[in-house]
UniProtKB/TrEMBL annotation:
It comes from Aegilops tauschii subsp. strangulata. Belongs to the RNase PH family. This is Protein ECERIFERUM 7. One of its GO terms (biological process) is rRNA catabolic process. The keyword Nucleus applies. Residues 305-363 are annotated as: Disordered. It is found in: Cytoplasm; Nucleus. Residues 309-327, 353-363 have a biased composition (Polar residues). Its main location: cytoplasm.
Length: 363
């Protein structure tokens, strides 16, 4: 995985080893300190980019309907694919994946599948005929050491934000599958039981000196490496020892205790970033309707001609019994008040001149 054009000199090797004996590292970290971790998500669900120091890995998740395996007819599938670009490291060659790419994919795949982190039975649509096949593509953008941990975090972050289309089963035989568009029905997230976190240790000297999250130069000097995949509950999901010098069992147990603490911290970081991303996506889907604005329609007032007014007055005088209102006053007097039909007509006309558009609150 190292650039063949760069080899540490004797002085560089001794300097790194002597600094580690004093619990110091070239980049200023302590032996069991991780580099700064950043997680960014793309516009589409199921894409994430992880920066671990200067190491950058991008993960992208896709899914399609396939036929299940005969020995597991009611379970979906999960596959990990890696791509090492020559732009990330001159040692990477284009074309078929090398040993480093195959090893990286196997370590991450073993930690996810062997621990049953993703519920495979929830990916079944029709037993024996249609299941979802989930594919995780990991692209190495920049190699500055410890690709396994960075790629593992990128895969977990991408899987946590992935949404598969919802599908229904119907038809006459009950075997016809209909895949709904995201605009018709909301996609469904994957069922993830826990997050298996990969923590890589590098050994120096006789295996008594170990550090966590080795850098590009430390990987060129180390005598061995071990990756422990463990979740926040302290359950060991997988252990991978990539050759090199032997390590005592007491040292391995110490590494597992340290990895358990680091796994809990990284799990909290991933869940926090995923929750922020989910909240932001939910706010973007909220449709805000504009408030109703009351508008007043101006209706011209009704004007009556003088001739019409005189005609109505004469008609009112000829019919004195129409529209009489009697109010009682003293015992010996009765006051008769006449209401002209013109006055009634004007009152009705006045009520019809004001018209509003809107709800009752606008009156």
């Amino acid at each position: 995985m190292m650039d063949p054009r760069w080899r540490p000199t004797v002085n560089e090797r001794e300097f790194i080893e002597q600094a580690l004996q004093s619990d110091l590292r070239v980049d200023g970290r302590r032996p069991f300190d991780f580099r700064k971790l950043k997680i960014a998500f793309g516009r589409e669900d199921g894409s994430a980019e992880v920066e671990l120091g200067e190491t950058r890995v991008m993960g992208y998740v896709t899914a399609q309907l396939v036929q299940p395996y005969k020995d597991r007819p009611n379970e979906g599938t999960l596959a990990i694919f890696t791509e090492f670009s020559p732009m990330a490291d001159p040692a990477f060659e284009p074309g078929r994946p090398g040993e480093a790419a195959i090893e990286l994919g196997r370590v991450i795949d073993r930690g996810l599948r062997e621990s049953r982190a993703v519920d495979m039975e929830s990916l079944c649509v029709v037993a024996g005929k249609h299941v979802w096949s989930v594919r995780v593509d990991l692209h190495v953008l920049d190699n500055e050491g410890n690709l396994i941990d960075a790629a593992n975090i990128a895969a977990l972050a991408a899987l946590s934000t992935f949404r598969r289309p919802e599908c229904t089963v119907g038809g006459d035989d009950g075997q016809q599958v209909t895949v709904h568009d995201s605009e018709v029905r909301d996609p469904l997230p994957l069922t993830i039981h826990h997050l298996p976190i990969a923590v890589t240790f590098a050994y120096f000297g006789d295996g008594n000196i170990m550090v966590i999250d080795p850098t590009y130069k430390e990987e060129a000097v180390m005598g061995g490496r071990m990756t422990a995949t463990i979740n926040s509950n302290g359950d060991v999901c997988a252990i991978q020892k990539a050759g090199g010098e032997g390590v005592m069992s007491s040292v391995i147990m110490q590494c597992l205790r340290i990895a358990s603490v680091k796994a809990a911290d990284i799990t909290s970081k991933i869940k926090r970033e995923v929750d922020d991303y989910t909240t932001e996506k939910a706010l973007q889907k909220v449709k805000r309707t504009p408030a109703l604005v009351a508008k007043k329609v101006n209706v011209p007032d009704v004007t009556m001609k003088e001739s019409t007014h005189s005609a109505l007055e004469n008609q009112a005088s000829k019919a004195p019994n129409d529209g009489q209102q009697i109010s009682k006053g003293d015992d010996d007097h009765q006051n008769i008040k006449r209401i002209s039909p013109l006055t009634v007509d004007r009152t009705v006309k006045h009520k019809q001149t004001s018209t509003f558009v809107g709800g009752p609150s606008n009156w």
